[in-house]
């Protein structure tokens, strides 16, 4: 990547490679050195958003879950969403009853291995697949029973569609949990879904607030506030505490983006939101994408031949825990598919056949392999679905392996960048990195000075207004009367303020006369 390449460039390049047009539902997520996850902002430079040194590891996953995934226009989009929800099911983010779990797993089985064949599928064949954090023999027998008797004849596309329709009806559909604590100190998980704001404690949903009831979201330090206006003008403020200020800010930004995407009618209605009521304090953020209604209208206009889809089996991550804190299970091996160029589930880009240059981030993955796969049990400190660096999909939560086998060709407007067959850019050296660090420190200092200057000017302006009110207004309150009767104020008023006012009025009169004469 060029140093000034925006996040939109990288995202468009990836979606072009996947032949994906309904791309507004997806995003790129990464984890910083402090183990805090972030969504890549498309309007900013990729390199400037990364606080770590290259190579950078990012994950492509669903950012905004479709309100009705079965209504998506193209099969390739439904397939990618299917992979994400299947991964949510495996990591315990999609909670459901045993009967629903068996049906969902049977749909996955039908989509991956087809109809039941006694010659190929011996007794206990469903136990070789891992669909959930925890398995039991009874559940495995139920899955196999549904697969044998109820789903025969369904194509992979039909099974995936039925899977999406069933998953959409569950309470935790679209949940991407953020660990927090309530005012009593009890652990909770906050999440934003297509239908509203959700609070989970244990395996139960304790709060559900529709998007049209959410009036405001803000944060201060580690504290997150949600302002709710319900029926009969009943107003509620929910307060939660995130593990770190960075995690709280990420939670706030996710809430702002989700509310804008699902609630607004047009992207022109999006406004810049501040985390504080004071103009010189807090963070400011603005959602930069399209809203759900615009995305659906745009999808309806797609007219092209359906792209070819190459389905692949799921490789469960060994590093991502779940809401249920279930034990991790070993991965199910799958065969290597030569046609797949981007192995998003592994968090890296594989060069196409004929490309001899090794991708720079593959070397970083090789060096940091042990770090990537050594996540402790439980949630990450920064508030994600726990990965090696504290994020939900680092590297195991992307859930969307590449479905399309196509040679790499950048889209129009993105060409001219170095590609895998060309010589690599040597990149910045140590001196340049040191200079960048110094420049960042200088920018922070200048920003602090500017903020102090703004505060000082604001205070002076307030004092000036108060002085004008004291000297020129007819307000006769006890407070103003006591100040006007002091000897110091009378001396200031007659010796300084009155002469200054006469001088200013004279100069103003002279300027007006000059303009009239001209």
UniProtKB/TrEMBL annotation:
<dbReference type="InterPro" id="IPR014847">
    <property type="entry name" value="FA"/>
</dbReference>
<dbReference type="Pfam" id="PF00373">
    <property type="entry name" value="FERM_M"/>
</dbReference>
<dbReference type="Pfam" id="PF08736">
    <property type="entry name" value="FA"/>
</dbReference>
<dbReference type="InterPro" id="IPR011993">
    <property type="entry name" value="PH-like_dom_sf"/>
</dbReference>
<dbReference type="GO" id="GO:0005912">
    <property type="term" value="C:adherens junction"/>
</dbReference>
<dbReference type="GO" id="GO:0005856">
    <property type="term" value="C:cytoskeleton"/>
</dbReference>
<keyword id="KW-1133">Transmembrane helix</keyword>
<dbReference type="InterPro" id="IPR014352">
    <property type="entry name" value="FERM/acyl-CoA-bd_prot_sf"/>
</dbReference>
<protein>
    <recommendedName>
        <fullName>FERM domain-containing protein 5</fullName>
    </recommendedName>
</protein>
<dbReference type="GO" id="GO:0031032">
    <property type="term" value="P:actomyosin structure organization"/>
</dbReference>
<feature type="domain" description="FERM">
    <location>
        <begin position="1"/>
        <end position="266"/>
    </location>
</feature>
<feature type="transmembrane region" description="Helical">
    <location>
        <begin position="449"/>
        <end position="471"/>
    </location>
</feature>
<dbReference type="InterPro" id="IPR018979">
    <property type="entry name" value="FERM_N"/>
</dbReference>
<dbReference type="InterPro" id="IPR019749">
    <property type="entry name" value="Band_41_domain"/>
</dbReference>
<keyword id="KW-0472">Membrane</keyword>
<keyword id="KW-0597">Phosphoprotein</keyword>
<dbReference type="InterPro" id="IPR019748">
    <property type="entry name" value="FERM_central"/>
</dbReference>
<keyword id="KW-0965">Cell junction</keyword>
<dbReference type="Pfam" id="PF09380">
    <property type="entry name" value="FERM_C"/>
</dbReference>
<dbReference type="InterPro" id="IPR035963">
    <property type="entry name" value="FERM_2"/>
</dbReference>
<comment type="function">
    <text>May be involved in regulation of cell migration. May regulate cell-matrix interactions via its interaction with ITGB5 and modifying ITGB5 cytoplasmic tail interactions such as with FERMT2 and TLN1. May regulate ROCK1 kinase activity possibly involved in regulation of actin stress fiber formation.</text>
</comment>
<dbReference type="InterPro" id="IPR029071">
    <property type="entry name" value="Ubiquitin-like_domsf"/>
</dbReference>
<dbReference type="InterPro" id="IPR019747">
    <property type="entry name" value="FERM_CS"/>
</dbReference>
<keyword id="KW-0812">Transmembrane</keyword>
<feature type="region of interest" description="Disordered">
    <location>
        <begin position="409"/>
        <end position="429"/>
    </location>
</feature>
<dbReference type="InterPro" id="IPR000299">
    <property type="entry name" value="FERM_domain"/>
</dbReference>
<dbReference type="InterPro" id="IPR018980">
    <property type="entry name" value="FERM_PH-like_C"/>
</dbReference>
<dbReference type="Pfam" id="PF09379">
    <property type="entry name" value="FERM_N"/>
</dbReference>
